[in-house]
Amino acid sequence: MMLKLFNPPVSGGRLLAALLLAGLLAACDAAVPQPELGVARAKADQCVEPTGDMRRNHMQYLLTHRDETVIEGIRTTQHSLVECVNCHVAPVRADGSAVHYPDKDHFCASCHTYAGVKIDCFQCHADRPQVMDNPDYPHPLSANRYHQLASGGGTTVSLSDMLAVSGMGSGSTAGEVRP
Amino acid sequence: MSDGLQQVPQRNQVDAYRRHFMAAVTGAATLATLAPGVILREASAATRPDVTARPPEQPATSVVRWGMLIDTARLGDGGAAMVAACRREHGWGHDPRASPEQQPQWVRTVRVTDKLTQHSFTLPVMCQHCEHPPCVDVCPTGASMKRADGIVQVNKHICIGCRYCMMACPYKARSFVHEPLTDQRPHSPRGMGTVESCNLCVHRIDTGRIPACAEAAPQAVIFGDLNDPDSRISQAVQALGGTQIRADLDLNTGVRYLNI
């Protein structure tokens, strides 16, 4: 409204535009919808940093940590993406279906969809915990069988029974090698 | 390698090699029969592991250089078990839409036959973890990198998928991922548009475990620190040598072979 004071000869079009903008802003202020975060399977009371800090800066933590890990071999778990997923994502839903990052109920995707920010991590990284590495996840199909395999129980386990591992065969290709 | 006549030793030499290698693998059990150069220090060899875990906050250093010695004569299956272990560990080889030629392969078995004598052997071939890796030389972004401890790997965060490194590698050790993937192994991220290859199971080494392939063939593979003169692998290569593939390229590979 300061605009009107210092610019007395306001045309009708500009006034209308200003009023519309003001109305739009007011409407936005009134009701900002909250994101519906996916179900977090958090094991601890608090995240690795204060919650507000994580909301703003988790990408910086991940960015720094990834370079330290890949290039230098530093494998602390505090800012590790694997640990994020282990804590925040359950491997399957209650009905047994897999949770993947394009789904809106994936913990990361739920907020990233809301914010309209594309997430690249899971094109390469596992987007949910896997039973072979986390036997404490009671997946009905794999957990017991994997324990049998690990303890050498003699049971032949089809690896396709396990999440993410299928099609195992001899698979090696014999070929000629140059002298 | 196909001129194997020069490299295949006499029969009695083979036996001596195998005896020495056996001794190196099994430790001090057969000390009495060994030449002095092969004797492993009993205490250290028996108790000290090949890989010791670093504290997680400590970076890898050039004090160590990881290497692997593979005795093809003791493999039995030519390395198929090693390949299977690698597939299981890293989850490659069954990308749903890739044709067989496109399937990534971090390690493969290669059968070599001398056309004249028909002598043949099979060896597993993976990234040889060169001291002077050609893939690192050609990479335009620095994604193909050699870690301080000698592990050659792809930093997929900055790989643009140009595949120069695949062209440069004399061992055909690298693969390209052509399609979107899901449910990768948590400790081995793989994704479309990036090049990948054996990384010596870097996630295992950093936590004090040996690579999956070495674990799958303990009778034939010694893994360890080539810079440590007291390590099993250093003593074995000192006593028995260890052939590099394409030694003519002077790449000083970290993976060495016996009986090829």
**Quaternary organization:** heterodimer
DSSP summary, beta strand count of chain A: 0
Order of helices and strands of chain B: HHHEHEEHEEHEEHHEHE
Shape of chain A: elongated
Q: Mean of residue pLDDT of chain A?
A: 69
| Radius of gyration of chain A, in angstroms, nearest whole number | 25 Å
Low-confidence stretches of chain B: 1-11, 28-44
- Mean pLDDT, all residues of chain B: 87
Content of β-strand of chain A:
under 5%
* Count of domain modules of chain B: 1
Largest sheet of chain A: none
The helix-and-strand class of chain A reads: mainly alpha
Terminus-to-terminus distance of chain B: 7 Å
The number of strands of chain B is 9
**CATH domain fold name of chain B:** Alpha-Beta Plaits
Task: Report a brief summary of the structure.
The complex is a heterodimer of chains A (179) and B (260). Chain A is mainly α. Chain A has six helices and no strands.
Task: Spell out the blueprint of helices and strands.
The complex is a heterodimer of chains A (179) and B (260).
Chain A: H1 2-6, H2 12-30, H3 51-72, H4 81-88, H5 107-115, H6 143-150
Chain B: H1 4-7, H2 11-26, H3 42-47, E1 66-71, H4 80-90, E2 107-113, E3 120-126, H5 134-138, E4 144-146, E5 152-154, H6 164-168, E6 175-176, E7 195-196, H7 202-205, H8 212-216, E8 221-225, H9 232-240, E9 255-258
How does this model look, in words?
The complex is a heterodimer of chains A (about 180) and B (about 260). Chain A has about 180 residues and is an all-alpha fold. Chain A contains 6 helices and no strands. The N and C termini of chain B lie close together (about 5 Å). In chain B, helix 2 (about 10-25) runs antiparallel to helix 9 (about 230-240). Chain B is built from 9 helices and 9 strands. In chain B, a hairpin with a 6-residue loop joins strand 2 and strand 3 (about 120-125). Chain B has about 260 residues and is α+β, with helices and mostly antiparallel strands. Chain B has one domain: 2-Layer Sandwich (Alpha-Beta Plaits), CATH 3.30.70.20. Chain B is globular, with a radius of gyration of 19 Å. Chains A and B meet through helix 3 of A and helix 4, strand 2 and strand 3 of B.
